[in-house]
UniProtKB/TrEMBL annotation:
Phosphoprotein keyword on record: no
Name of the protein: Cytochrome P450
Ligand binding (heme): 440
One Gene Ontology CC term in the entry: membrane
Short name of any one Pfam family annotated for the protein: p450
Cofactor: heme
Taxonomy, superkingdom: Eukaryota
Family from the record: Belongs to the cytochrome P450 family.
Keyword Ligase: no
Subcellular localization: Membrane
Length: 496
């Protein structure tokens, strides 16, 4: 009898894998960058040497090329080909590409509302109501700063600043989403704020099981869900429990007041006015809470990231902070401590700093999409087949000399002061909020909350890095995370 050792089995498995997963490139496709190690392809360089590797690929193969990672071909797009993705939303789908590594529908199983619903909600109910809600945002930013940073008579050093800032940013957002009564509960604010931190790691787990089969990654990731555990369940329980009494109270008010009921300006009240709101149905509140989670996931972590990056960018540059302090003081004097939305929008130096900071977020490649038509031919003549995953070489686009000048690579905090190009403005090259039909609908809220947060912090504290240097971000594969080096807060009033 022939005996087969484990090693022989492994070799047979690898050979089959090699044959099955071999990249097949059709005619007229963007060039596939050559690689030496079969099966692994460019995976190592993609994960551990992204910046240099992708830059060299672009120099050699142009704006549009393919690499072979995790057992599949991925086409990397920059400049004109990147712009085409935003201009042709019917051909490129981000949701399906995201779901491969991040099973959002299984994490939020109660809601079957479509992404368009959340986009409209963010645009109309969150960004669209910012002028009404700016007072709430201001009130809770001040409260969050007092509670979380507080008195820094003695310099206070914060190491994981993103966590701290995330709670401050989450507080006003929670108030805007569910109203002041429900958001008075700290556990609810934490549940909404921490959601993305708890789910975020799923997004950055390298999908090594893709080497065997695409579906295997999702299958393994979601095994715990099948046994009733998911990273969302704990958060959902907290939010449902806190919202239930508020919902019942509002339903009672609606019944008693009839046409005289004065709607609250929060998202919860909007959900309650939808025809599919029915508190008598089991799990109906769970349905709306999962919708709330979709918005919180998109809103909180992203905004706090913008805020903490900008803080580090200022902290490493004392001369910039001084200039921003002068601007902040002038606005503060004029409005006696209570700024309006127009004031926030008119803080041009702060706006420029935030925009420059977002431009330097440092993510090399992101916003993967699937090409979902039969085939797609770019204006440069290259064609990609149905199902091809594409990713955007964002860092290259955001540092394009044609759009930002010869010094595009430099961090120039006041680059946009006279450019009539606010941080919310999406254009061909400034793609931090995506572009086209799906451009981020929450960006007006995000930028204004970030600016208002920074305005209050700049007025209250001198901020510096513990090292006295400009701190670098941390690379996680092609993506970045804020620095975790010490950030020092010192009371301003006393030290000036
Ligand atoms: C600085 C903070 C933020 C950044 C950097 C950011 C970035 C982005 C990006 C890159 C996209 C994809 C756009 C595309 O596909 O072209 C997006 C989509 C989206 N964002 Fe934001 N976002 C931020 C804040 C917010 C906030 C505060 C909200 C909610 C109030 C929000 C809600 C959404 C929604 C609902 C979408 C999906 C839009 C669609 O598919 O049509 N975002 N965001």
């Amino acid at each position: 009898m022939i005996e087969v050792s484990m090693f022989q089995l492994f070799v047979i498995f690898v050979i089959i894998l090699y044959i099955v997963r071999r990249p097949r490139i059709g005619e007229n496709e963007p060039p596939l960058v050559p690689y030496t190690i079969p099966i692994l392809g460019h995976t190592y360089n993609y994960l551990f040497n992204t910046k240099k590797f992708i830059k060299e690929c672009k120099e050699q193969y142009g704006d549009c090329f393919s690499i072979y990672i995790f057992g599949e071909v991925m086409t990397i797009l920059s400049r004109d080909t990147l712009t085409e993705v935003f201009r042709n939303p019917d051909n490129f789908d981000m949701i399906s590409a995201t779901k491969e590594t991040f099973p959002l529908d299984q994490l939020l199983p109660y809601s079957d509302d479509k992404p368009e619903f959340h986009a409209r909600t963010a645009r109309e109910q969150v960004s669209g109501k910012l002028d009404i809600n700016i007072g709430i945002v201001q009130k809770y930013l001040i409260k969050g700063i007092e509670n979380s940073i507080g008195d820094c008579n003695e310099p206070k050093v914060v190491y994981n600043a993103w966590n701290l800032i995330n709670y401050i940013i989450a507080l006003p957002i929670a108030n805007v989403l569910v109203g002041e009564e429900a958001a008075s509960h700290e556990d609810l604010v934490k549940a909404l704020g921490d959601l993305a931190f708890d789910l975020g790691p799923l997004l950055v787990i390298p999908p090594i099981l893709f080497f065997i089969h695409k579906k295997l990654h999702e299958f393994v990731l979601t095994i715990p869900f099948k046994f009733g555990w998911s990273p969302v369940s704990r958060h959902r329980d907290i939010v449902v429990n806190r919202l239930r009494p508020v919902v019942e109270k509002r339903l009672k008010e609606r019944k008693e007041l009839g046409d005289n009921y004065k709607p609250y300006n929060d998202l919860l009240d909007y959900y309650m006015s939808r025809p599919n709101f029915d508190n008598t149905k089991p799990n109906n509140l769970h349905f709306h809470v999962d919708n709330l989670f979709s918005i919180s996931f998109a809103a909180i972590n992203t905004t706090s990231r913008a805020a903490v990056d900008a803080l580090y960018d200022m902290a490493g540059r004392p001369e910039v902070l001084n200039e921003l302090y002068e601007e902040a003081l002038a606005f503060d004097k004029e409005c006696n401590g209570s700024v309006t939305l127009a004031d926030v929008q008119n803080m041009v130096k702060l706006d420029s700093l935030v925009k420059e900071s977002l431009r330097h977020a440092g993510n090399i490649i992101n916003l993967s999409h699937h090409m979902v038509s039969k085939s797609y031919t770019f204006s440069n003549g290259f064609t990609i087949p149905e199902g091809r995953k594409i990713s955007l070489y964002s860092d290259d686009m955001l540092k394009a000399k044609e759009n930002f000048g010869d010094d595009a690579e430099e961090f120039k905090p006041f680059r946009f002061v006279n450019a009539k190009s606010p941080a919310t403005k999406v254009d061909r090259s400034y793609i931090v909020f995506g572009g086209g039909r799906h451009a981020c609908p929450g960006r007006f809220f995000a930028i204004n909350e970030t600016k208002l947060f920074l305005h209050k912090v700049i007025l209250n504290y001198k901020i510096s890095t513990k090292s006295g240097k400009i701190e670098d971000k941390i690379f996680i594969g092609p993506l970045t995370s804020p620095s975790q080096s010490g950030l020092v807060f010192e009371n301003r009033v006393k030290n000036n």
